[in-house]
Design goal:
It contains 3 helices and 4 strands; from the N terminus they run βββααβα. By secondary structure, it is mostly helical. A hairpin with a 6-residue loop joins strand 1 (2-3) and strand 2 (10-11). Helix 1 (49-63) packs antiparallel against helix 2 (68-88), helix 1 (49-63) packs parallel to helix 3 (96-125) and helix 2 (68-88) runs antiparallel to helix 3 (96-125). It is rod-shaped. The termini are far apart.
Length: 126
């Protein structure tokens, strides 16, 4: 409710002029209040099992260095599948960092294996 400052007439609308005395009234603030996000995620989040498997395969690949492709390829595959599951989950599944670390370890191990293979071939050929 608003009141005219001149005649004191009370009105409830958004009138620009007082209907009784014709006094120009201040325009009510028409900017909407900011909308606050009050939603709470009630579903608990958990780490992606594929991301965890990717990290385990990636670490194991470096521990058991003599088995290069047997563990590096599953680390890469599980990492990519885990990232896809995380993106599709709308925030209920987390662990993108785990998947990325597993991917990095897997790709780095394959790259290092290829470099070592090229060096071995060059040494044998010379």
């Amino acid at each position: 409710m608003r009141q005219c400052p001149i005649c004191g007439h009370v009105f409830t609308g958004n009138e620009r002029f007082c209907p009784v005395c014709g006094q120009a009234l201040g325009v009510a603030d028409r900017t909407p209040a900011p909308v606050l996000n009050t939603t709470i995620n009630l579903t608990p989040t958990h780490n992606s099992r594929l991301a965890i498997a990717s990290l385990i395969f990636g670490i194991t690949t470096w521990i058991l260095f003599f088995i290069p492709l047997l563990l590096a390829v599953p680390a890469i595959v599980c990492g990519h599948l885990g990232q896809g599951a995380i993106k599709r989950s709308n925030g209920t599944v987390v662990g993108n960092g785990l998947a990325m670390l597993g991917l990095g370890l897997g790709y780095a191990h394959i790259a290092l294996t290829l470099v070592a293979l090229c060096v071995a071939i060059a040494m044998v050929a010379s």
